[in-house]
Amino acid sequence: MFSIVVPVYNEAEILRQNAVKLVDCAKKVGEPFEVLICSNGSTDATDDIGRRLESEYGGVIRFFSIPEKGVGHAFVKMVSEARYDKIISIDADLTTDMAFIDECTTLLDEYDMVIGSKRMGEQYRSIARIILSKGYYYLVKILFKMEYGDYSIGAKGYMKGMIEPYLGKIDYGSSYVIEVAYMIHQRGKIIEIPVFCSDTRRSKFNIFHEVAYRFNALISFWFRRGR
């Protein structure tokens, strides 16, 4: 049994087709599951589409909408609402190979976190994104002594019981992945596996703002960790 969590922000263009594809992929695992979708501050038709999906796929797709913009807020909401202990985080654009879902459900029988790593596998992304990611991971390694190579939102698995105590402490944005990984690294078991990623879609976020946010969030967490 597992819960797939999908944060969305202004994804009206792709939400329906990708939600249906995700449900079809999850069915192949052969276990009870649910797909939780949470819109965080969307201003397009995302919420309307999400509500219709929930109505059409009652019990399988559950849709939530929160006014606060920030993927960390969405993550906290979905984990809090999840019915099952195994939590699998997937990007709305489904850029990662969906085979990760099946493998992740098995690994969570033994581990507290599963990291799907683009660096260990294959990735088709812009050179700028790859270079910035490498610099970011190197900084994480220096500050937190963690060797993992991917701290993006998608292709991550968690045991709910391990992360619930920290939900009120994690960052509002994408930096929550670093924080959760650090907390589990201190007390639990993490495994990193290769994944295939093809991400050629133009980012909705200003890359300079994202770099500034991630650096500030990283330093902030470095000062307050363990408190």
Describe the structure.
The chain is α/β, with parallel strands linked by helices and 227 residues long. It is 42% helix and 22% strand. The chain has a seven-stranded mixed β-sheet with strand order 3-2-1-4-6-5-7, with helices on both faces. The radius of gyration is 16 Å and the shape is globular. 39% of the residues are buried. The model has no long low-confidence stretch (mean pLDDT 89).
The string of secondary-structure elements, in order, is EHEHEHEHEHEHHEH
- Report the biggest beta sheet as strand number plus sense, adding barrel if it closes: 7 strands, mixed
Strand content: 15-25%
Shape: globular
Q: What integer value in Å does the Rg equal?
A: 16 Å
The helix count comes to 8
How would you classify the helix and strand content by structural class?
alpha/beta
Q: Strand sequence of the main sheet, in spatial order?
A: 3-2-1-4-6-5-7
Helix percent reads 40-55%
Q: Quick one: how many beta strands?
A: 7
Distance between the termini: 33 Å
Averaged pLDDT, please? 89
Would you identify the regions where 5 or more consecutive residues have pLDDT less than 50? none
Keywords:
227 residues; 8 helices; alpha/beta
Secondary structure elements and their pairing?
Blueprint: E1 2-8, H1 15-27, E2 33-40, H2 46-56, E3 61-66, H3 71-81, E4 86-89, H4 99-107, E5 113-124, H5 127-144, E6 156-159, H6 160-163, H7 176-187, E7 190-198, H8 207-224
Parallel strand pairs: 1-2, 1-4, 2-3, 5-7
Antiparallel strand pairs: 4-6, 5-6
Helix pairs in contact: 5-8
